[in-house]
């Protein structure tokens, strides 16, 4: 199975680490925090020990742990369900380890169905007879559940082959003595046994894990010197878990010298072209941010006309790169990776020279052209093709505007993002990425190609647009001319990268379905990586994921932290504003004494698009205090974000979600805790959100360069300052109150419109 491929190690590398921990141990709430600590410490795979009355195979500490959990959670299916969800939420690969006596009582078919239904990553049953082992393998064949099987120290080659035939995950070389606390011993027989097993497994593409009661760093060192691709620890981890997350972190940290060998550092020049400034950063392959430099430039803005000279981007890039390399002369770059503002229109003439300023994404001058496009081509037709709504900022009306001003568009070429322009200046190649392309209103979303229908209506051909890179790749190399201007080595590879929405999504760890991103600024949004696009009529933006297959769906809330700023100004809170606000709000109970707040000070975009919507306090009574009102504003913001989360969650196939919060509002601990309580999922506060785009660029380029296997943010890059876990009592209250909140807007919708008409 694909999830076990990272266990394989190249020559000179150390093995992966597999941990063993009884499900829900030492208690259900602590278990989640323990798993987080395991993930942060570098653990990737976890055997989930399921409670059993007679765990004869394990030592005293594990036996006591299993029995303590079994006493509180006697139902096997319930324990498996809760444990798999918790392990998946922590980002670990979970292998259910269950004793065959329990499986037999539960029923092999029913057990297999349960694993499939819960989408377990794997299953290990230590004492299963060969016939049942084969039957289970057949029941799980073709599913996402991998079979992991024991190979005893005494097993002969022919029996090994039979076990391998029933295995799709990895092989676990074990001994009865080692499993019950015996001393780990490396001898010639063990070395030969591992070599033989690895040789047999190579043809089947299976890793070999070694589990001999390895609970000390000294034994881990011995195990790491063998040819096993993974080693398994149990007793020590169980005892550490009993002491809490900090002890787990300390305990697992002892093994790091024997479990991972750091590859030589490589360095990237990450470049992000923003609206008012360009940021260049040198970042190492291990996630270390070495240095950054910025270059600012002005906008040309008059009314709804917003332009910028693209040469200012190039000049800012050249000056910042020279400063960075001048300050870090000892560093040799491996590549450059780009990201930047999307949905720009940059025009090149027939001689491939820049023609005029770039028309930026926020420019909405093409109102008449948009009205014509709406009437003739129709928005319904455009949305069906692009899976996004359109407005005057979209590229079709902008291109129509340009055509109206200068005549036919034939002979021109168009770049569509600021990073497209830099890539062209560096390499001479005209390309763009699918994330950026999805914002333009020109992309056929389902086929990942330029829409011939839309282009024909506008009067241009796909040859005039940049080539679409359907996945992140090395686009080209720095030309001699660009090298001399920017102070870079000629021939240095360039990764075009992604539009800024793609790099920032990857950079906060939301590149797969398990993690949603929530930005808490003056305005805010919830973003998720989903298998398919959502109906754009619901107010979402559907952007292609950098992998070219999935969708980054973004639901925007017009006012989030802006509600808090309004509150502080209205109540004249001037000193220690945010701390004082939290102090006041915390004097009110969860639910704010029945007071609701609608956070629509500037209308709303999602889950409904209503520019007339207003803010409102509802439910005031004689006992309502300032504290109730303050807390209700916090809860109203959380409910508004939950309304977006709910829509995205319904389209996600992930069984377990957590949310990464960034932006200034994430500093408000009451808001982040309330958001966790309302959503019922952990909310993680990112420590260094300002550099999320840089980390995203590292992952994107690292995938293209072969440093990383996926677009998922590496654990060591996931700088989480604090995790807010939902309070179950508060969550139970909000589950009842949330539908009431949604009904309040529906009840007032017409009156909001009437108020606007009065004004």
Report the end-to-end length measured between terminal Cα atoms.
63 Å
Largest sheet: 8 strands, parallel, barrel
Ranges with pLDDT <50 over ≥5 residues? 176-181
Binned, the helix content reads: 40-55%
Instruction: Evaluate the radius of gyration.
Output: 29 Å
Indicate the structural class.
alpha/beta
Count of individual beta strands = 32
The fraction of residues assigned to DSSP E strands is: 15-25%
The number of helices is 28
What's the rounded overall pLDDT mean? 89
Task: List the strand order in the largest sheet.
Answer: 1-2-3-4-5-6-7-8
Shape designation: globular
Assembly status = single chain
Describe the structure.
The chain is of the alpha/beta class and 759 residues long. Strand 7, helix 10 (217-224) and strand 8 (230-233) form a beta-alpha-beta unit. Helix 26 packs across helix 28 (728-758). The longest helix is centred in the last third of the chain and has 31 residues, at 728-758.
